[in-house]
Amino acid sequence: MKRSKCSNFLGILLFLITVSSIHGQSSAGIRTGIHISRFRFNSEEEDAVKYMSTPYVSMTAEVFLSEYFSLQTELIYLQKAVRLYSQDAIDYSDFRMRKDVLELPILVKKNFTDWSTKLCLFAGPSIVYAMGGKINQDFTEQKVKYSTKERIDFKDMQLKKWDICLHLGGNLGIPAGNGEIILDARYIFGLLDIDGFAEESTKKVHTRGIGLSIGYAFHLSE
After folding, report:
1. Which residue of 4, 37, 92, 209 has the smallest Cβ count within 10 Å?
2. pLDDT score recorded for residue 119
3. Best CA proximity match to 83, nearest among 141, 152, 138, 142
C-alpha cells in the first residue's frame, strides 16, 4: 500500500513536469536554508520540548497555469528534529533527535505580479519519508556526566517512516538575470501521528517546522 501511494505521487510529479514543458511557461530552481523544527507531544510538558535548527535543501519545478496561478512541485531534503531538555537541582538530561527526511510537496500558488518584485502565497500537501537519523544525549547522574550517540532504529523506537504534511507560506521573487532570486518562508504542519504505539496508548506525536530559505529559479520558457 505504501509503495502504491508513493508510486501514484511520483506519477503526479512526472505528469506536472511534462505539462510544464507543453504549456510553454515554466521554471526550475534550487533553494537552501534552515528548518526550525520540533515534535508536538500530547504527553510531554511543553516547556521541556525545544526547537532545533537543521539544514534544508530544495529543488523545484513550477508550471504557470495563468498570470496569477501556478503549480509547484519540489524535492526537499531536510532534517526534522526535536530537543527534550530537563533539569533538576542536581542532574540534567539533554536529548536531541534528528531525522533525515525526503519530502515531496505539490503546492498551489497565487502570484501577485503587479510589482517588479513578485509576491507568491502557496499551500499544498506533501508526502514524507524518513531515511534515517541520529540521536545524541548528554545527561548526568549524581553530577557525573555521560554522553551517548546512536542511529535511529525506527522499528525498535516504534517510529513511523511515512508522514503527510501541509505546507503554508509565501515567497518573494526578485528579478535577476534569466530568472529570480527566491526568498521563501513556510510553515510545515505534520498531519499524521508518527508514533507507532498509537493503537496501544493515547500518546500522539506530530511534526512541526518553519522553513526559511533562499535560492534561484531559472525561467525555462516564456
Report:
1. 4
2. 93
3. 138
CA distance 155 to 42: 21
d(CA 19, CA 16): 5
Grid cell listed for 135: 540521536
pLDDT tens figures, 116-133: 788 999 999 999 999 999
**pLDDT higher than threshold 90 for residue 20:** no
Cβ count near 91 (within 10 Å):
14
Q: pLDDT digit string (tens) for 137-178?
A: 999 988 889 999 999 999 888 889 999 999 999 999 999 999
List the grid coordinates of 41.
507531544
Determine the Cα–Cα distance for residues 94 and 147; give it in Å rounded to an integer.
9
Planar angle of CA 61, 65, 70, nearest 5 degrees: 50
39 and 52 Cβ atoms separated by less than 8 Å:
no
Residue 42, number of CB atoms within 10 A of its CB: 11
pTM of this structure:
0.83
Domain annotation for the chain: domains and CATH numbers: 2-221 (2.40.160.20)
Calpha distance 195→199 (Å, rounded): 9
Q: Give the confidence band of 2 by pLDDT, cuts at 50, 70, 90.
A: very low
